[in-house]
Amino acid sequence: MEKDDSTKRANGLWIALLCVISMTATASSQSYVTSDGTTLAAITPSNLIVDYDLSTYSPNVEPGETGTINLVIRNTGTQKAESVVATFIDTLSIRTSKQFYIGTIQPLASTTISLTYNIEKNASIGLLILPVKLDYDGYDADGEKVDNLHSNYDFPLQVYGNPKLTLQNPEIGQAGIGKNLEIKLVIRNQKSRAYNVIAKMDDAANQQNTGNAITILGSNKQYIGDIDEGKDANIVYNAYVDEEAETGAYTLPLTIYYENKGHENKTESFNIGVYVTGEPDITITNTDTDPDEIHRNTENVELKATVANTGEGEVTNLKVTLMPKEPFTNAKSYTQEKSLGILKTKATSIVSFYLNVDENAKPGLYETSFLLEYQTGMQDVNKTISINLEVKDSPDFRLSYDKIEANAGEGGEMRLSAENKGEDCDSVTLWVMKKSEQPFDFTDKSQYIGDLKTGQQGEAVIDFTVDEKAQKKSYILPLEVRCTIDDTVYVESETVLVTVNGKKESSTNTYLIALAAAAAAVYIVYLSIKKNKK
């Protein structure tokens, strides 16, 4: 019996040893190797978390604005998570109302989802919380499936509320040496409300930093109060330019102090540029035209203008624009705005423009204008200068004629009368402007009429022939009346109407037709007599 008991005890020890060995082997077989080669001691159940370190969201989002969240969901377990659903829960301050079906997230893997969110206009500034709920089916450490797992997380969102103050185009008066200067500013708030706004402008030091070139008159601080989003605040400063100040650019520092919605103190700094100069005076000192004399119905008359700076101090961004008035118009083929850039004191520059003169213009003086645009320091200046241009009398011909017609294959003549309703004109000549597509041929395409004074009339006769294949219709034939006044040639365009009739039958054809008709008549009589005899 003792032997049997000892045998049983020995067998029990062996069984216990085998169990330990088996458990050790099992534990070894449950170890897990990650994708980066790290070996975990044991299999762990599915476990989804929000990875705060890798998740991101839009910076500088303020109340009333929209941002984007990139949320990283990580499975920290060595068992996969299935049927994963992420739900974002709205709050009083944050609106998303979104749910995402993700599906499966593998062991130790992660996925990123992106969504937009809106911060309510009345939301408080600071750190807000967006609740996130994760629902999924997973597996425990033994690989048994576990359904309906839930994880809740609070995703932090920082809401900002800093106003955005900008300086709009300042209006700087003429900064003349030894004179007062007015500075008008507009402060615009482009974002959330700014509280307790104060503007402070400092003096401008002179170029040698030994004193002030520009001194603010009165208090350099202005209390503005609150500026709502999208609203402006107007500020006016008065200053004085020192008599010893030199011509040149100076800077007036402007600082805006304010509080945001969280009543944090903020500042914005701007530099106001002021150009100190003497008083420039831009004007037109001389004008010339080419040709010297301007007549009606003249194109591309060159108008030269001398632009001069007769004042003290240079100007920049100088532009000169011609603004013609009736009976003048801009010549379309030329630019009527000239950029001259900088024009220094006592300097001049010549610009050219081109005009057309209306065909119905009457003799006399007519006004036309130049627009001068330039800058003196920071000030924009517009100035209009008017001049007078004389339109002189010119020839004005009126053509008259009786009906002009001819037969195809025959000749004809044009008998035209030209009356001068305008200025006396010498060597009046009528020219036919023959076109190749028209069926006319001219022995001489021009005829000299002579000198015509105002009210006088002259005649021209031009012979022509018509092509025998010409179509039966009316043709518009272009003409020109040319003459000279003081060695200047004037040309007027006119037209006449020429009617072409059908080709005229020849006498031989007429005779043959008559002979055939007579023969037919004789034959008819013969047939009648023959019938009566029967």
Radius of gyration: 51 Å
Strand content: over 45%
- Mind describing the biggest β-sheet? 6 strands, antiparallel
Instruction: List unreliable stretches of 5+ residues.
Output: 1-30
Principal-axis shape: flat
Give the distance, in angstroms, between the N- and C-terminal Cα atoms: 180 Å
Residue-averaged pLDDT, rounded?
83
Query: How many beta-strand runs?
Result: 39
Derived structural class = mainly beta
Helix content: 10-25%
Number of helices: 2
List the SSEs and their pairings.
Blueprint: H1 2-29, E1 32-33, E2 39-40, E3 48-50, E4 56-57, E5 66-75, E6 81-88, E7 94-95, E8 98-105, E9 110-119, E10 126-139, E11 145-159, E12 165-167, E13 171-172, E14 180-189, E15 194-201, E16 204-205, E17 212-216, E18 221-227, E19 232-241, E20 248-259, E21 265-276, E22 282-290, E23 294-295, E24 301-309, E25 315-323, E26 328-330, E27 337-343, E28 348-357, E29 364-376, E30 379-392, E31 397-401, E32 404-407, E33 411-420, E34 425-432, E35 440-442, E36 446-452, E37 457-466, E38 473-485, E39 488-501, H2 507-533
Parallel strand pairs: 23-30, 32-39
Antiparallel strand pairs: 1-2, 3-5, 4-5, 5-9, 6-8, 6-10, 7-9, 10-11, 12-14, 13-14, 14-19, 15-18, 15-20, 16-17, 17-19, 20-21, 22-24, 24-28, 25-27, 25-29, 26-28, 29-30, 31-33, 33-37, 34-36, 34-38, 35-37, 38-39
